[in-house]
Amino acid sequence: MGIIPAVTAVIDCRAMADDFFSWVKARRAELPFTPGLATVLLKGRSDAASAQYRDMILKDARSLGFLARSVEARTEAELLAAVDNLNADPEVQGVVVMYPLRIHRLDEEVMDLVSAGKDIEGLHSLNLGYLIKYRRYLDEPRGLKCVVPATAKAVVKALQSRADIRLEGAFCTIVNNSMRVGKPLGLMLENLGATVVKCYDKTPREALEACVRQSDIVVTAVPDPGFRLDPSWVRPGAALVDVSFGGNFDAAALMGRAGSLTVPENRIGRLTRAMMFVNLIYCCAAAAAQMAGQVGRES
User: Could you tell me which residues are beta bridge partners of residue 96?
Assistant: First the structure.
């Protein structure tokens, strides 16, 4: 049984995001070119949340001094052609596709069509492969870092921001098994010494309850607006992070029970976008190093 906390701490995702955005802005100013970011949205198939997320990314990009481009495709063929064109565009260093696409082709296939060097969401198989091997650098002597999935990275940063949350040796339940959240987050936490269980819509409710009850850390990312985590399952003193758009647990009901948690007005979304721009800086650094190498060879 965990210890009931005297006060439940709120994880300040917004403050962390602001710090990372400041870092991104400073690093952008050091680059020898103005980086470009492009979003790709499939009209008629994408939901309101995807369009809203796209708009926030573009707003962030402009406020940070990046070139920002919005591409809207009407068909699957147009979307694939747009990704191909952006991969070849030297003015674009980061490409973000708004998933889920809800097309015949699997989202995971489209993730691999985005150039690994412009994949600032960290969803290309090459970038996920680095995560599996816990490889942190493309080239450590030159400081060129690997890109990892932005949402999962945001969750880890949120947990690491609290001195009272220990990842090494922790038992963690992730209520999501997607390529964007659950799978990479599980790998990240395991790389940091945690024991991880991933639950999803096919997990029996009694099994989910059993996992949550023994968890030091619970991360929820269930897209179903009807899903709510039962607060009585939460182990006293546990840390909880809600990644969902609609809200997967009642933060107010967990005050005085959870050790720390995210709240609706200060969720993980802004921190996720900050991690995406950190990844963009990494991609820009790799692109700049590649350009410098080409110039050296030509001279």
Answer: 39
Q: Domain map of the chain by residue range?
A: 9-13+151-270
pLDDT tens readout for residues 44-67: 877 888 999 999 999 999 999 999
Q: Which of 170, 149, 118 is nearest to 221 (CA)?
A: 149
Give the right CATH number for 9-13+151-270 from 1.10.287.690, 3.40.50.720, 3.40.50.300, 3.90.1150.10: 3.40.50.720
For 290, the enclosing helix (H) or strand (E) is helix 269-298
- pLDDT one-digit tens code per residue, 137-150: 999 999 999 999 99
Please choose, from the candidates 81, 75, 13, 70, the residue with its C-alpha nearest in 3D space to the C-alpha of residue 45.
75
Q: What is the 3-state secondary structure (H, E, C) of 58-73?
A: HHHHHHCCCEEEEEEE
DSSP letter for each residue of 89-130: -TT--EEEE-S---SSS-HHHHHTTS-GGG-TT--SHHHHHH
Q: What is the distance between the terminal CA atoms of the chain, rounded to a whole angstrom?
A: 67
Omega before residue 184 within 30° of 0, cis: no
Could you give the C-alpha distances from 57 to 37, 121, 133, 138, in angstroms and in order?
A: 9, 12, 29, 26
Average pLDDT, the chain: 93
Q: What is the pTM of this model?
A: 0.93
